[in-house]
Design a protein that fits this description.
Layout (H helix, E strand, L loop, with lengths): L3 E5 L5 H4 L10 H14 L4 E7 L3 E10 L7 E2 L3 E9 L9 H15 L4 E7 L8 H5 L3 E6 L3 E7 L8 E2 L3 H5 L6 E5 L6 H15 L4 E5 L3 H5 L8 E5 L2 E4 L5 H12 L2
Parallel strand pairs: 5-6, 10-11
Antiparallel strand pairs: 1-2, 2-3, 3-5, 4-9, 6-8, 7-8, 10-12, 12-13
Length: 258
């Protein structure tokens, strides 16, 4: 499309274009995500936005070398897409998502990667697989409940990425009480965590272990493929993607009535 362009994000323009639809430096999650992004740039992360002079930021893509991926996968030698999103409907079905994926291809080839990989799912918080399958990606692994790992290889004999697995073994470490694992990979998690902390203090007579995962090694050993957020109670994974405070209360009220 002629009225959009792809802009590389860096420390100098973070708050000009923003993250996931917000660019207010006073926004708690945006501020935290900006700091997180600066640290990830050292590891080779790329964050690019699709910018319209009329509408502003209308889409994004975020990717990083697989060794440093913030997902529960083993993808050394690949470039891993964390997020791909087009916010404004008029810009969907216009080929711009494929254009952004092509940016990832260019960087992956420049860095002599095996290929590009992405975790997809049918539900919320992650991109669906259709756009990738149309672009030549293939299913290389899958895990419950509906996570699929897709990859496109630049060389046919390249090893395939895979999910870390062993989710039950990892969950067993959190078999007592409430544990929440979270990160700043998504700018909307911080607000939920702050509100959930207040709710636990005011509403529930329980101890909670709320842990911020601060590096890729911790994240890659989280108990789910999404990895950037996990809600666990007595060893049971109750939510594997970011949730609102209201959703948290609904889950906990149900659990504590058992």
């Amino acid at each position: 499309m002629r009225d959009v362009r792809i802009v590389d994000m860096d420390a100098g323009n973070i708050f000009d274009y923003g993250f996931c639809g917000t660019k207010n430096p006073q926004h708690e999650g945006c501020r935290r995500k900006a700091e997180w992004f600066k640290n990830r740039q050292k590891e080779g992360m790329k964050y690019k936005v699709l910018y319209s002079e009329e509408k502003g930021t209308v889409g994004l893509i975020e990717y990083i070398p697989g060794e440093y991926a913030w997902r529960g996968i083993e993808a050394d030698g690949y470039m891993v897409i964390h997020c791909l999103c087009i916010f404004h409907k008029p810009y969907r079905e216009k080929g711009v998502a494929s254009q952004m994926i092509d940016e990832c291809f260019k960087d992956a080839k420049k860095e002599k990667k095996h290929g590009v990989a992405v975790v997809t799912r049918k539900g919320a918080w992650m991109v669906g697989k259709e756009i990738f399958l149309k672009g030549g990606f293939e299913l290389v692994d899958k895990t419950e409940p509906d996570f699929e790992l897709l990859a496109i290889k630049f060389k046919k004999d390249a090893p395939s990425p895979k999910f870390k697995g062993n989710w039950d073994k990892i969950l067993a470490k959190y078999n007592k009480g409430l544990t929440i694992l979270w990160t700043d990979q998504c700018p909307y998690i911080a607000k939920s965590i702050r509100e959930i902390r207040e709710t636990i203090k005011e509403r529930y007579v329980i101890n909670a272990n709320i842990v911020e995962l601060k590096d890729h090694e911790q994240v890659q050993n989280a108990p789910s493929p999404y990895a950037s957020f996990s809600l666990i109670y007595d060893g049971e994974l109750l939510a594997f993607h970011p949730i609102s405070n209201k959703r948290f209360m609904n889950i906990m009220d149900k659990i504590l009535r058992r």
